[in-house]
From TrEMBL:
<dbReference type="InterPro" id="IPR050765">
    <property type="entry name" value="Riboflavin_Biosynth_HTPR"/>
</dbReference>
<dbReference type="InterPro" id="IPR024072">
    <property type="entry name" value="DHFR-like_dom_sf"/>
</dbReference>
<dbReference type="GO" id="GO:0008703">
    <property type="term" value="F:5-amino-6-(5-phosphoribosylamino)uracil reductase activity"/>
</dbReference>
<protein>
    <submittedName>
        <fullName>Dihydrofolate reductase</fullName>
    </submittedName>
</protein>
<dbReference type="GO" id="GO:0009231">
    <property type="term" value="P:riboflavin biosynthetic process"/>
</dbReference>
<dbReference type="InterPro" id="IPR002734">
    <property type="entry name" value="RibDG_C"/>
</dbReference>
<feature type="domain" description="Bacterial bifunctional deaminase-reductase C-terminal">
    <location>
        <begin position="4"/>
        <end position="183"/>
    </location>
</feature>
<dbReference type="Pfam" id="PF01872">
    <property type="entry name" value="RibD_C"/>
</dbReference>
Amino acid sequence: MRELTYYVATSLDGRIAAPDGDFSAFPVTGDHIDMVLEEWTDALPAPALAALGLTPPATRFDAVVMGWRTYASGFPHGVHDPYPHLDQVVVTRRHLDADVPPGVRLTDDPVGEVERLKAADGVGVWLCGGGDLAGTLVDQVDRLVLKINPVLLGEGAPVLSASYAARGFQLDRARTFASGVVVAEYARAT
């Protein structure tokens, strides 16, 4: 059974993007980038992989689930098939009839889709974003990996939007980098 991992960059105050969806405040240079390139290659979008001459190893993920806004963030850059090396699922209620590439599947049933993906053979499922979708899927999340960036945004999209219910996670690993980024990895408490 595959695990669902919510792997996401966040600010110190728990925001994954500014109010307008911009996430350029997060540092894209520094020693934490080496870790991303070495350990999380399969979570890089196709344009980044091509620019770096990398081939994703499929050691962590072979499927990705994202909300429509996360998916559509690539449109201004001509990216409509961001992760062709992964089974791509886009959750949407309004765009189910959108014209998408063959490697992208649209659904309006995120919980059912994640249950199907987790039950299938494979490596792992990545919850790419955003916070509303993470809130819907919070009870499906097996692992939480936060790339905590040394910046306060004040407002913007939260890491997750969910109604209150305490959910326990155990710290598996935490690493600090000279860039100021902290990567904290948690597993659902049993």
